[in-house]
């Protein structure tokens, strides 16, 4: 579509274009979710319920680390002190459906980003599109790294803390399946979205809402927000919050650098047009 045609598109035309992109996104998620539903037994056994096994890689690493330092830790326990149960008629079926939908979204994320990019890119100049060709790849890589971080770091730390937290010996941890899956889902998905911070800063800088100076000025406030986010997606112990906060702080610093590059390129283009 030519630039002129894009500029002449009415508001309703843009809405119609967006509608078709959203339809394609939904179709992709549904198709992948259907496949995930077919293989749901494997997904639950090997992925969803894997952090309940104390042979999970994260527990094994933390146990060895604790033994090397010479401290006692619950990461070396033989089993997780909790039982997963279902207390509603449609509980397991609902868990199956929503897990399939989540898997569908995560796996099809590159296509989701591609469709959103197809909607945004016609409004950019040719040179802007040229320099943004790696957008889909970079966004997808950051998202998948975030999901893996949430699954292998946030989820096991949260499970271990909450499963071993006790107010009295009389209380057993019999966790409803929906509560357990919600923890795994929120940990993985929230981390994946948080890792998209550099991409978000890139676009905010492009439209003039963010500058490196603003990011540096409000860095200390951003650190507070980071700690709050870490507290939300992790158990309320300092070690877990610090582990989660570190990559977010690194991403914030990377975002400042990205914003600086965008501003520098914009100034260079302005000089070339003078």
From TrEMBL:
GO terms classed as biological process: intracellular protein transmembrane transport; protein transport by the Tat complex
Protein name: Sec-independent protein translocase protein TatC
InterPro entries on file: TatC
Pfam family, one: TatC
Subcellular location: Cell membrane; Membrane
Cell membrane is among the record's keywords: yes
Protein family according to the UniProt entry: Belongs to the TatC family.
Entry-linked NCBIfam families: tatC
Originating gene: tatC
Function: Part of the twin-arginine translocation (Tat) system that transports large folded proteins containing a characteristic twin-arginine motif in their signal peptide across membranes.
Organism: Flavivirga rizhaonensis
Transmembrane segments: 21-44, 97-114, 135-154, 188-209, 221-238, 244-263
Keyword annotations: Cell membrane, Membrane, Protein transport, Translocation, Transmembrane, Transmembrane helix, Transport
GO CC terms, sorted: TAT protein transport complex
Organism superkingdom: Bacteria
Entries under HAMAP family matching the protein: TatC
Membrane topology summary: Multi-pass membrane protein
GO MF: proton motive force dependent protein transmembrane transporter activity
